Amino acid sequence: MKKATFFEGVGFALISSIVVAVIFTTMSHLFLNSNVFRMLVAGVSFAYIIYLFLRSNERIGKVTVISTWFAITLISLIFVPSLLLYITIQLFMIWIMRSLYFYNSIFSALTDLALMGMSLVVAIWALSVSGSVFLSFWCFFLMQALFVFIPKNFVSKDKSESVYPVNDDKFEHAYHAAEVAVSKLINSK
Question: Which pTM was predicted?
Answer without folding.
Answer: 0.77
